[in-house]
TrEMBL record, chain B:
The keyword Nucleotide-binding is annotated on this UniProt entry: yes
Chain positions covered by the region annotation Disordered: 349-393
Name recorded for this polypeptide: Nickel import system ATP-binding protein NikD
Organism: Natrinema versiforme JCM 10478
GO CC annotation terms, alphabetical: plasma membrane
Automatic annotation (TrEMBL), chain C:
GO cellular component terms, semicolon-separated: plasma membrane
GO process terms (BP): transmembrane transport
Organism: Natrinema versiforme JCM 10478
PROSITE patterns (UniProt xref): ABC_TM1
Protein's membrane topology: Multi-pass membrane protein
Protein name: ABC transporter
Protein family per UniProt: Belongs to the binding-protein-dependent transport system permease family.
Region of interest (Disordered), ranges: 1-21
PANTHER family, per the entry: D,D-DIPEPTIDE TRANSPORT SYSTEM PERMEASE PROTEIN DDPC-RELATED (PTHR43386:SF1), OLIGOPEPTIDE TRANSPORT SYSTEM PERMEASE PROTEIN APPC (PTHR43386)
InterPro entries: BP-dependent_transpt_permease, MetI-like, MetI-like_sf
Record Pfam families: BPD_transp_1
Compartments (UniProt record): Cell membrane
Record carries keyword Thylakoid: no
Domain ABC transmembrane type-1: 141-331
From TrEMBL, chain D:
Descriptive protein name: Binding-protein-dependent transporters inner membrane component
Record InterPro entries: BPD_transp_1_N, MetI-like, MetI-like_sf
Record's bilayer topology term: Multi-pass membrane protein
Any one GO cellular component localisation term in the record: plasma membrane
Record organism: Natrinema versiforme JCM 10478
GO BP field: transmembrane transport
Main location: membrane
Source lineage: Archaea, Methanobacteriati, Methanobacteriota, Stenosarchaea group, Halobacteria
Length: 444, 393, 344, 333
């Protein structure tokens, strides 16, 4: 397309290789700041005061690559670290560890002015149409600001380009002198687009750009983004929580859970042949706008654990419906599934106390597992069963449940390969010719 | 209709009297809810669905006011207006008084679940205390009984370790857990009808799935009726029995859920369905709806959807269609407010198509200034159509 | 805030206005328009304008006419009624023992003070030395307004620098600065100001102003810091960083302009607090020194005549009250005018 | 348990602040152009030798940091040094003066809270009605009027003109009745102490009352618009309960903070009110110390008042934590 809207047609980097490559990118946040932050006071120990800074492991050892011209979708639930990853890539946040190669140059090594200059090649679009535009600036100034920062064009040239861009994103160039508050959410996202494109970047991180918009507006903005990608030769990293939007816009999709990439594959492959239990759960959970479709839903139990103290090994294992049986025990058919369900019920204390016999019936159809595993299960049942004592104090009762939980988790959950090793497997894709990465030990 | 419905709303009109003019947030709404069914109220933001649900509870806050309509619940009039001798509108004599609505209807007959689980619970009281207060009030139980009922209900809605969590404060609960607490509140008062105002919008998709499952189970168990307010057609398809689609304060289509999706009768519903990306299949090109919903303060003439409607004709600008029965789906009426249908007979077929509906009414003009009719200084954007689905039939 | 449908959805009134108004939702013109509409702000503005006018008049007047006493006394009502013949020269200090003009606000009079109450010549009577009380009250405006504006400015300037640095950069710098601010904040301001004034300077209005200004730096630093912190979280700051805009441009173009409005409101209210404190300081004898016509200092003197002339203690207090009320009204109004959330 | 942890945490946090206060006070008193000796000898003829002697006597010839450490060492043992003017330990001078000041400040707060909170709630509930307007104007006048002038006016009206109440001094209820001439029995002692306290209490409390009322009103208005209030309405909770329980409890949180932070204004105000009413509290002691250039005493009093303020803030912080569960239990997400 020769619209003259491109500022640099030539590319100095190798177009064959990836545009962006992440190697072991990690971002931890320390939880508090302040002179006395992290100070813990515990009268039970000596000395009673200790300094212990807790870290939120927002992104942990993420490696991936983004190819020129593609849209990589990054999907996950709130708190999974997807936005943090997006910002760390642009070095709006300092990576705790890892390398970020953009056009072959390691961004993690750049400092100050060098880094600032690379920003003309990478831009970002934000989620919140309200707060992403300075309310005191006019639309024209907003769009010109990045160009001004990089000394592109002269005043007249910038104005002309800003008006051009307004038109490109579907706004009236005559709105050049308006303030952002005069625009609706969808229009503000268009202004955001125009600002990002003003320096003619190669790579744009889109952080939930349409999730604040109404469905009908969403479609308009998505279509515009599509068109602009072709015209400007853009590469998108598209961050979203909405799988439908991701399916529409992406070429390849990465799924994140609690700071880890759990699955990465080409779009069709990922949606039609998901290999990670979390991806499957996610896909099954989305309500489909079709009343005749009645698939399973809500298959995930419990809640996302705290990123301050994430589970070892596979971070999804605490909720995984397919947690692998620990090898240390011998399991007959179905025994492990029953034990797993029993373990989680105890942990979540999701039933009222009952007698040992009732528990065996409820969770094991009256036939608890035998062998070593069986004796652990029996021990746990004894701990929580209310046969013996009739009137236990509430505190005692809580202690018993806790003891049973610890026993079961230590004996089973922590023994599973899922808890001991961090999974990472390359699979043969069923569709397309790309690679299929799945972080699940089921593919051992 | 075979039997008296649980709730009947007729010609409900709620308006907000602002400096800038009268906002007709809900403008002539009629629908009903029967025993044990989930009725969807669907629309984009600004459609008036939340105002409608608040109107049913009599909880419209100033400067808003219900100016017309009748709401009947279990045969009793909970809202009704009549013209007094002086020509002023006043409350009908047979309607329940405010005090009666408060003590007899709110909570114990009709309960609500709000959209924002983070803000809806009082931060300085324990979750259990708040739950217990509502139970005591609406079921007349003593303190201990109410507490036992509250803990049972917390367990019922899937909150782990309910005895301990009873004593905890809202900020110690995650969003999904708080939403469960709100659901527990609604159910614990044993109402016959629950109004759920976007209850899963603020939640993650897996949590939403859990909540929908929960509602399904509990609804089967208690037989409670629901009015489910949402903008998400996926959720509608999953749990609703019958659906009302709202646009700019009016119901444009009313049908059982299957008919709505497979035998769509209104262009707005149709366009909405076409514009959403699908999780179950790849859609290469989204067909966006042109423009945005105009302000309810200056609704377009005739059919309110006509400036954005791909099927709009000259007549649509003039005739304002009320929803009429256009089809019958196994005894269930299928209503739509579109003059395309034979039931209207206003000469749609002969009417010439509107000039440049798809491209002429620009996104910019509608979105920005909010005035869709009068000529504003800002003319239509010549490139407006490259923002949407292009020109289509 | 945009004209958004969601406002309507939540039952709040949507702000729909015509094109011009939409255009002017930020900036001075818009603020002025809001102030015009807000009754509180309007009244505050009236009072502040009158007070400022009186103060400026007194400045201009004393500059021009301290040596030409005739003009000076023009201001009083008495001058309107040509009863007295005013001499046109000012006696050198220490010589004020002869026949002295009654309206000169500084020199003490040798003649017997008039009894309490007003006369046509002296609407508010005269003080213990026979000086016209009204003239002194009027000139007191100048001192109060000067003190209020200058010390607030000192606090604002110092607080802006500290608060902006602490807020924008955060981390260790923030910790140390804020701990220092907290410390200064912990000593009751009146106490700190007195200690500062007396031990560092010596009882003197200039040191009082400086002391008040410095003491209020922490207050401003705190509010500016919290404002900067909330603005720093805004996506448009991150957008500017992502666009490669330099830090100092971000601070100058985005952070400062957007922090300004609430700080301005706060400063306006702070002027009142400052006047209040300096009045207390002068009342104790550590602020303005005689013969400067300062309200607090006048109350100090009047305290000794409480039983003989009640009104001497009344008028300066009323003057203080009206002045501070003016700034408070204006500040309140400004707050409403600048805060989009409050709409009544 | 959590509350205890929090309390200790807050006390630890106060240590650097207290050290900071001592540094500031010490520097102001020792670094100013008016050095202690010449301040002491102000107006007197003095020889070099006299200066030396005095310096040696008070240890002023040693380097600044040493003097500071000595001073701090004394402080830790409750020794505030020796008053130059009174020739007595500073601590002794202060010990009798803290009581009246505390009595004055606390009663002023009691008065302010007891009047401001109901008025603020009424104003919020009748928003934009005449009641609201009147109370808003009253509050505006309250925040705009100097406390010492209110004291003067109160004296003029109630003591000078009407003669109902005494115009100066306090009667301390903790002393035996025999300490005062003409007072028989405890009942009369309490009666008299209330009569004496009334005017200074109102003079000092008006500013606090007006401030608290304004905050209470805005907070109640905001709280009444909260989603949780909407929810309570939807569940049929009577409007009165909503006002008194649901909206009220949330609205009180900022009030607690305001009360703590305003303590410094109140302590400053006490200096003025004590002067107007001739009350022998810390404030008058301070004014005397200043006018006699008694820098040791000034330092002692400043430390003491700063300390009182810090303690006050800690108490309010802890009560805040008690009322608002979000402070002690960290956010779970």
């Amino acid at each position: 397309m020769s619209s003259g809207i491109r500022l640099d047609e030539e590319h100095t980097y190798d177009r064959e290789g990836p545009l962006l490559e992440l190697e072991g990118v990690t971002k931890y946040f320390s939880q508090e700041s302040g002179l006395l932050a992290g100070m813990q006071f515990d009268p039970g120990t000596f000395p009673p005061i200790s300094v212990d800074r807790e870290h939120v492991e927002a992104v942990d050892d993420v490696s991936l690559e983004v190819r020129p011209g593609e849209t990589l979708g990054l999907v996950g639930e709130s708190g999974c670290g997807k936005s943090t990853l997006g910002r760390t890539i642009l070095r709006l946040l300092e990576p705790t560890e890892g390398d970020i190669y953009f056009k072959g140059e390691n961004l993690a090594d750049l400092s100050g002015e060098e880094l600032r200059r690379t920003r003309s090649d990478m831009q970002m679009i934000f989620q919140d149409p309200q707060s992403s535009l300075d309310p005191r600036m006019k639309v024209g100034q907003i769009i010109e600001e990045p160009m001004r920062a990089h000394g592109l064009l002269d005043d007249e040239g910038r104005e002309a380009r800003a008006k051009d861009l307004l038109e490109k994103v579907g706004l009236d160039p005559r709105h050049y002198n308006r303030h952002p508050h005069a625009f609706s959410g969808g229009q503000r996202q268009r202004i955001n687009l125009a600002r990002a494109l003003s320096v003619d970047p190669d790579f744009v991180v889109c952080d939930e750009p349409v999730s604040a918009l109404d469905v009908s507006i969403q479609a308009q903005v998505l279509n515009t983004m599509d068109e602009l990608q072709d015209e400007f030769g853009l590469t998108y990293l598209f961050i979203a929580h909405d799988l439908s939007v991701i399916r529409h816009i992406s070429d390849r999709v990465a799924v994140m859970y609690l700071g880890h990439i759990v699955e990465l594959a080409e779009k069709e492959e990922l949606f039609e042949n998901p290999q990670h239990p979390y991806t499957r759960a996610l896909l099954e959970s989305i309500p489909v706008p079709d009343p005749r479709e009645d698939g399973a839903r809500g298959v995930l139990e419990g809640e996302v654990p705290s990123p301050v103290d994430p589970p070892s090994g596979c971070r999804f294992r605490t909720r995984c419906p397919r947690l692998i049986a620990p090898d240390a025990y011998d399991w007959a058919d179905g025994e492990w599934a029953q034990t797993r369900a029993f373990m989680r019920a105890i942990k979540r204390r999701s039933f009222e106390s009952m007698s040992a016999a009732e528990m065996r019936r409820e969770f094991f159809d009256g036939r608890p597992p035998g062998g070593e595993a069986g004796s652990v299960v029996e021990e746990a049942i004894d701990l929580v069963a209310n046969d013996g004592e009739t009137d236990r104090e509430a505190d005692d009762e809580a202690d018993c449940w806790e003891a049973a939980t610890d026993l079961l988790l230590d004996s089973f959950a922590e023994q599973s390969v899922c808890a001991r090793e961090r999974p990472a497997y390359e699979l043969e894709p069923e569709r397309g010719d790309g690679t299929h990465f799945s972080a699940c030990h089921l593919h051992r | 209709m075979s039997s008296e419905p649980l709730l009947r709303v007729e010609n409900l009109k709620t308006q907000f009297f602002t400096e800038a003019g009268t906002v007709r947030a809900v403008d002539g709404l009629s629908f009903e809810v029967r025993e044990g069914e989930i009725v969807g109220l669907v629309g984009e933001s600004g459609a008036g669905k939340s105002v409608a649900s608040m109107s049913i509870m009599g909880l419209v806050e100033a400067p808003g006011e219900i100016v017309a309509g009748e709401i009947t619940y279990k045969g009793e009039t909970i809202f009704g207006l009549e013209e007094g001798p002086d020509g002023e509108l006043r409350k009908r004599d047979d309607a329940l008084s405010d005090e009666e609505i408060r003590t007899r209807i709110r909570g114990n007959e009709i309960a609500v679940i709000f959209q924002d689980p983070m803000e809806s619970l009082n931060p300085v009281f324990t979750v259990g205390g708040q739950l217990r207060e509502f139970i005591e009030l609406n079921r007349g139980l003593g303190e201990d009984e109410a507490k036992a009922a509250a803990i049972d209900m917390l367990r019922e809605v899937g909150i782990p370790d309910p005895e301990e969590r009873y004593e905890e404060y809202p900020h110690q609960f995650s969003g999904g857990m708080r939403q469960r607490v709100l659901i527990a509140m609604a159910l614990a008062c044993e109402p016959s009808l629950i109004i759920a105002d976007e209850p899963t919008t603020a939640l993650d998709v897996t949590v939403e799935g859990q909540i929908l499952d929960l509602v399904d189970d509990l609804q089967a168990k208690y037989g409670t009726s629901f009015i489910w307010v949402t903008h998400d057609l996926g959720v509608v398809a999953e749990i609703c029995d019958r659906v009302n689609v709202m646009y700019l304060g009016e119901i444009v289509e009313q049908a059982p859920v299957d008919e709505l999706f497979y035998d769509t009768k209104h262009p707005y519903t149709n366009a909405l369905l076409d514009s959403i990306p699908r999780p179950d299949r790849t859609v290469t090109e989204l067909e966006a709806i042109e423009g945005v919903m105009p302000e309810a303060i200056t609704p377009p003439s005739g059919c309110r959807f006509h400036p954005r409607c791909p099927d709009a004709r000259e007549v649509c600008k003039r005739v304002h269609p009320e929803a009429k029965v256009v089809d019958d789906a196994g005894g269930e009426p299928h209503r739509a407010a579109c003059v395309q249908h034979d039931a209207f007979d206003v000469g749609y077929d002969e009417s010439p198509p509107l000039e440049g509906v798809a491209g002429g009414v620009s996104t910019v003009r509608d979105e920005g200034s909010g005035d869709s009719g009068a000529d504003s200084e800002l003319a239509a954007n010549p490139t407006g159509d490259d923002s949407g689905g292009g020109s289509r039939e | 805030m945009a004209v958004s449908e969601s406002q309507l959805e939540s039952g709040r009134e949507p702000a729909t206005e015509d094109e011009e108004e939409v255009e002017a939702r930020v900036g001075w013109r818009y603020t002025v328009a809001r102030i015009k509409r807000d009754t509180t702000a309007r009244w505050g503005l009236y009072v502040v304008t009158i007070v400022l006018f009186v103060a400026i008049y007194a400045v201009v007047d004393s500059n021009l006419s301290l040596l030409t006493f005739g003009l000076l006394s023009d201001f009083t009502f008495a001058r309107l009624l040509p009863i007295f013949d005013h001499p046109t020269h000012i006696p050198p200090p220490g010589e004020g023992t002869q026949h002295m003009p009654p309206y000169f606000p500084l020199a003490e009079q040798a003649w017997n003070p008039l009894p309490a109450g007003g006369t046509l010549e002296h609407p508010l009577g005269t003080d213990h030395t026979g000086r016209d009380y009204f003239t002194r009250i009027v000139y007191g405006t100048q001192v109060s307004v000067f003190v209020g504006l200058v010390s607030t400015f000192i606090g604002l300037a110092g607080g802006t620098v500290i608060g902006a640095v602490a807020g924008y950069y955060g981390g260790r710098a923030d910790d140390i600065l804020m701990r220092a601010v907290e410390t200064v904040y912990s000593i009751p301001p009146l106490i700190l100001i007195i200690v500062f004034t007396v031990f560092v300077g010596g009882a003197n209005i200039w040191y009082a102003v400086l002391g008040v200004g410095i003491t209020f730096i922490p207050v401003f630093a705190r509010i500016i810091r919290s404002r900067v912190l909330s603005i720093r979280e805004m996506d448009y700051i991150e957008a500017a960083r992502a666009a490669g805009v330099k830090d100092r441009h971000i601070i100058m173009r985005h952070v400062v302009p957007n922090s300004f409005a609430p700080v301005l409101v706060y400063a306006t209210l702070q002027i009142g607090v400052t006047i209040l404190i300096v009045a207390g300081l002068s009342f104790l004898g550590y602020g303005a020194q005689p013969p400067t016509p300062d309200w607090g200092q006048m109350l100090n003197i009047a305290h000794g005549y409480m039983h003989s002339n009640v009104w001497l203690s009344i008028w300066p207090g009323i003057a203080i009250m009206i002045t501070i009320m003016g700034f408070n009204l204006f500040g309140d109004g400004l707050q409403d005018a600048l805060d989009p959330r409050i709409d009544d | 348990m959590k509350l205890l942890k929090y309390t200790i945490y807050r006390l630890l946090q106060a240590i650097p602040v207290l050290i900071g206060i001592s540094v500031i006070t010490f520097l102001l008193a020792n670094l100013g152009p008016g050095d202690p000796v010449s301040l002491m000898l102000q107006g007197q003829e003095h020889s070099e030798e006299l200066v030396r002697t005095i310096e040696r006597r008070y240890g002023l010839d040693r380097p600044l940091h040493e003097r500071y450490l000595t001073y701090m060492g004394g402080l830790l043992q409750g020794d505030f040094g020796q008053s130059i003017h009174h020739q007595r330990p500073v601590a002794d001078l202060m010990i009798n003066r803290v009581g009246p000041t505390l009595l004055l400040v606390l009663s002023a707060y009691a008065f302010a809270l007891a009047t401001a909170i109901p008025l603020g709630i009424i104003a919020a509930n009748r928003r934009n009605e005449p009641t609201d307007h009147v109370s808003r104007i009253a509050a505006l006048v309250g925040v705009s009027t100097p406390s010492f002038w209110i004291g003067i006016v109160l004296i003029l009206i109630f003591a000078v003109t009407l003669g109902w109440l005494p115009s100066s001094g306090l009667i301390y209820p903790w002393r035996p009745p025999s300490a005062y001439r003409g007072i028989d029995g405890h009942l009369e002692l309490y009666y008299e102490s209330v009569r004496h306290l009334l005017l200074p209490m109102i003079a000092l409390g008006t500013l606090q009352m007006a401030t608290i009322m304004r905050v209470e009103r805005t907070q109640m208005i905001e709280s009444l618009q909260g989603e949780y209030v909407k929810l309570a309405r939807a569940y049929g909770v009577p409007e009165r309960t909503i006002l008194r329980k649901h909206a009220f409890n949330v609205a009180q949180l900022p009030i607690i903070t305001i009360v703590g932070l305003n303590l410094s204004t109140a302590i400053g105000g006490a200096v003025l009110v004590e002067t107007v009413f001739n009350i022998n509290g810390m404030g008058r002691l301070f004014v005397n110390a200043i006018s006699t250039n008694d820098y040791q005493l000034v330092m002692g009093i400043t430390m003491m008042l700063g300390f009182l303020f810090v303690i006050g803030v800690i108490i309010t912080d802890i009560s805040y934590a008690y009322v608002d569960p979000r402070v002690t239990y960290g956010e779970r997400e």
